[in-house]
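User: Fold this; tokens only.

Assistant: Input:
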Amino acid sequence: MRGYGQTDHPEEIEQYTLLHLVGDMVGLLDALGVESAVIAGHDWGAPVAWLAALLRPDRFRGVIGLSVPFRPRGPVRPTTVMPQTDDALFYQLYFQTPGVAETELERDVRRTIRSCLYSASGDAPRRPGSGGAATPVGMVPRHGGFLTSKADPAALPLWLTESDVDFYVGEFARTGFRGGLNWYRNIDRNWELLASFAGARVTVPALYVAGDRDPVMAFRGMDQLIPSLSKFVPQLRGTIMLPGCGHWTQQERAKEVNTAMIDFLRGF
């Protein structure tokens, strides 16, 4: 993904649209001399994978989405329907203003990495009322920050090692968080650019895998979208919900995810 690790980090926010990122995936196939492939994506990589399959089924003959399901283009600008109150706003709204989240997340990169990985995992204790109507999940206090509700664990969960954390910390300390955050700053732009694809369906074979303790499962509308996913992805070959698993699907449940992906690929 551009903006992460050793990939390019364009300065301009508009260089991080979904169309740019799908183009990167097509360019990767070209660079490898591969005519077509099955594409898999996790978190914000999942919309890239879903859209790659939707826009270029000639190059992406199958798709695997982890955590984030395919979401059809909605009728209104996305940021206008994100939850906010007098006291808090949805984290994707908090990320919109350049520099604000960067300053918070880069203040102590090690704490940021440890607390974000732990707090979104299935190992973190459930917060009372999280995801309920009164307290939507993912809210950031207006007089706090994104990390306010995140816990820095005394010990790492079994699926995460100190060497993993050291690597992530080293990369984000070097690059900063701007590239990754620019993803969020194109949410409305993506909605505009993809207007002509409203109603389009992902027609290639697909697999969806998520954890039942993933905070994404508590996002508004997921309880209706996931059960009806086959309406928008007619060749959906399975929806796998991993019990006790949080957001980091392929890390928390590596064996189960690998098995599911290999079984899916054997169908080609």
